C-alpha cells in the first residue's frame, strides 16, 4: 500500500500519519455506514414500490410528453422524501435555479419572504434582491425580511415571533452553513423552527434549502414539516452521475406552483424532455447514500488530520455532521495555496494543472478553487476553494469515493509538508 501511495506522491511519513488518524475514526465511520445502509434501503423501497424498469431509462425530446422515466423518477424522489410530489429535471440547472423556481412560483406581489436563520447563500442575494439585480423578487414587489441568528448560532425565537406578520407568505431555511461560519442545522432543529413558525401562522409555506444535506441523516427536512425541500443534483442526490439538475420535493400545491415557473403557467410539470439523462438520474440517486457517506468520511478525516496539526476546523473533529462541508483555517496564503494544489493534484481529471487565485466577479478578494471533476462545477466530487484573504479558510467537500477523498487530503498535507508549513 505504501508503495502505491509513494508512486502517487505520498511520502511514508504522511501515509503513516493518515493511517493513525483513520484507525481512530473507526467508530465514527461505522455510524456513517449505518446511516448509509438505512438510506440505501429507503431509496430501494421507493424504487421497488414504483416498479423502476429498463423502460424508465428511455429518452424523450421536444415537449417530453409521456416520459415514463421522468414520471417514475419523480415518484421515487417523492417517496424517498415522503412528500406528495416532486419535480426532478435537467432543465433546472443548479441549486440556485431550483431555489429561485420554488420562490418565484410560490410568492406573489405584496408577499413577504422571511429568512429566520440569517443571511441566505450568496447566490440567493440576487434572486431575492438583497443585492439589487435585474428580475429579482424585489422587482416584483416581494419584500424580504431577515432575522439573524443569536451569537451561539441558534434561532432568535423572540425576534422571529416579531417578524412574522400578515404579509409573511414564505419562510426559507438553509440547512447547510454553506460558506459561513455558523453551524449547520440538524433536521431536528429545522423541525422545531418550522413548528414554531406554523404555530404563529399555520398557512405560511416553509421551504428548506437542502443543498449538501441529503442523506447525511436518516430524516430529511420534508419529514419534519417542510412544505418544500430543494436541492441540486450536482451535489449529494445526483450521486456523482447526474450531469445536471435540481429537485423540488413537497406538497402537491407547492410543487405545482413551482412547476408553473419552471416551465410556464398552463404547462407546469406536464412538459420537459429528459434528453437521455434518466438512467444517470436513477443510478445516481441509487448510489447517492453511498457517495454521501464517502464524502462524510473524507470531511471527518480532514477535520481530524488538520485539528491534530493545530489548525482550527469547522465542524471540529468530534461534532455530529449535518452536511458534507469541512472548513479548515490555514492561516497563511501559502497554506491555502498548498492545500488547494494538493486537492487538484489528487483529482482524476485535470490532475496536471495548477490552480491559481483569480478575481471572480462578486467577490472582494481573489478566490482559489481546486476541482478536477467529471461534471463541471460538481461539488459532490472532491473540491476545495477559499478566498485569498485572512484567515485563509479553505472549504473542502465531496469525494465520490472515500478512498479518493482520503488520497486528496493526504496530498494536501504532503504539499503543506513540502513547503515546510507543517511538521508531523
Ligand atoms: C451550493 C448551494 C446552493 C446553490 O447551489 P448551486 O448549485 O451552486 O447553484 C445554495 N444553497 C446552499 C446551502 C448550497 O450549498
The total of helices stands at 12
Ligands: pyridoxal-5'-phosphate
- Mean pLDDT score: 96
Radius of gyration from the alpha-carbon trace, in angstroms: 22 Å
Q: H/E order of the elements? A: HHHHEHEHEHEHEEEHHEEHEEEH
| Overall outline | globular
What's the SSE blueprint?
Layout: H1 2-7, H2 12-24, H3 26-49, H4 68-81, E1 85-89, H5 95-106, E2 112-115, H6 124-128, E3 143-146, H7 157-163, E4 168-174, H8 187-200, E5 205-209, E6 228-232, E7 246-250, H9 252-262, H10 278-308, E8 313-314, E9 325-329, H11 333-345, E10 367-371, E11 383-387, E12 393-397, H12 402-418
Parallel strand pairs: 2-3, 2-4, 4-5, 5-6
Antiparallel strand pairs: 1-7, 6-7, 8-9, 9-12, 10-11, 11-12
Helix pairs in contact: 3-4, 3-10, 5-9, 10-12, 11-12
The chain binds pyridoxal-5'-phosphate.
Care to describe what's here?
The structure is a single chain. It contains twelve helices and twelve strands. The radius of gyration is 22 Å and the shape is globular. The strands form two sheets. It has a seven-stranded mixed β-sheet, sandwiched between helices. Strands 8-9-12-11-10 form a five-stranded antiparallel β-sheet, with helices on one face. Helix content is 39%, strand content 13%. The chain has helices at residues 2-7, 12-24, 26-49, 68-81, 95-106, 124-128, 157-163, 187-200, 252-262, 278-308, 333-345, 402-418; strands spanning 85-89, 112-115, 143-146, 168-174, 205-209, 228-232, 246-250, 313-314, 325-329, 367-371, 383-387, 393-397. The chain is α/β, with parallel strands linked by helices and 424 residues long. Bound molecules: pyridoxal-5'-phosphate (PLP). Residues 94-96, 121, 123, 174, 176, 178, 209, 211-212, 232 line the site of pyridoxal-5'-phosphate. Pyridoxal-5'-phosphate binds at residues 94-96, 121, 123, 174, 176, 178, 209, 211-212, 232.
Amino acid at each position: 500500500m505504501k508503495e502505491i501511495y509513494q508512486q502517487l506522491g505520498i511520502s511514508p511519513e504522511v501515509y503513516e500519519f493518515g493511517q493513525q488518524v483513520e484507525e481512530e475514526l473507526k467508530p465514527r465511520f461505522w455510524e456513517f455506514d449505518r446511516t448509509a445502509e438505512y438510506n440505501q434501503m429507503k431509496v430501494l423501497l421507493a424504487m421497488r414500490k414504483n416498479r423502476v424498469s429498463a423502460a424508465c431509462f428511455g429518452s424523450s425530446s421536444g415537449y417530453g410528453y409521456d416520459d415514463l422515466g421522468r414520471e417514475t423518477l419523480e415518484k421515487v424522489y417523492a417517496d424517498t422524501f415522503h412528500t406528495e410530489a416532486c419535480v426532478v429535471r435537467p432543465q433546472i440547472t443548479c441549486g440556485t435555479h431550483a431555489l429561485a423556481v420554488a420562490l418565484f412560483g410560490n410568492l406573489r406581489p405584496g408577499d413577504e419572504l422571511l429568512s429566520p436563520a440569517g443571511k441566505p447563500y450568496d447566490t440567493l442575494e440576487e434572486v431575492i434582491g438583497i443585492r439589487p439585480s435585474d428580475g429579482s423578487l424585489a422587482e416584483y414587489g416581494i419584500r424580504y425580511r431577515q432575522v439573524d441568528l443569536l451569537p451561539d448560532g441558534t434561532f432568535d425565537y423572540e425576534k422571529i415571533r416579531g417578524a412574522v406578520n400578515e404579509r409573511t407568505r414564505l419562510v426559507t431555511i438553509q440547512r447547510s452553513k454553506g460558506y459561513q461560519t455558523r453551524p449547520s442545522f440538524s433536521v431536528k432543529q429545522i423541525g422545531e423552527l418550522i413548528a414554531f413558525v406554523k404555530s404563529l401562522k399555520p398557512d405560511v409555506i416553509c421551504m428548506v434549502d437542502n443543498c449538501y444535506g441529503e442523506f447525511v441523516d436518516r430524516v430529511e427536512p420534508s419529514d419534519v414539516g417542510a412544505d418544500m425541500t430543494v436541492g441540486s443534483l450536482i451535489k449529494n442526490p445526483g450521486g456523482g452521475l447526474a450531469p445536471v439538475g435540481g429537485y423540488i420535493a413537497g406538497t402537491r400545491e407547492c410543487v405545482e406552483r413551482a412547476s408553473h415557473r419552471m416551465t410556464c403557467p398552463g404547462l407546469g410539470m406536464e412538459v420537459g424532455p429528459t434528453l437521455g439523462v434518466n438512467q444517470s438520474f436513477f443510478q445516481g440517486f441509487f448510489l447517492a447514500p453511498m457517495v454521501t457517506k464517502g464524502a462524510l468520511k473524507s470531511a471527518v478525516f480532514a477535520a481530524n488530520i488538520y485539528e491534530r496539526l493545530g489548525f482550527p476546523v469547522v465542524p471540529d473533529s468530534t461534532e455530529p455532521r449535518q452536511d458534507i462541508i469541512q472548513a479548515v483555517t490555514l492561516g497563511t496564503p501559502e497554506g491555502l495555496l498548498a492545500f488547494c494544489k494538493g486537492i487538484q493534484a489528487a483529482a482524476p481529471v485535470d490532475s496536471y494543472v495548477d490552480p491559481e487565485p483569480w478575481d471572480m466577479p462578486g467577490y472582494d478578494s481573489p478566490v482559489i478553487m481546486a476541482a478536477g471533476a467529471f461534471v463541471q462545477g460538481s461539488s459532490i466530487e472532491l473540491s476545495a476553494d477559499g478566498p485569498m484573504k485572512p484567515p485563509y479558510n479553505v472549504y473542502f467537500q465531496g469525494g465520490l469515493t472515500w478512498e479518493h477523498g482520503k488520497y486528496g487530503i493526504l496530498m494536501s498535507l504532503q504539499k503543506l509538508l513540502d513547503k515546510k508549513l507543517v511538521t508531523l
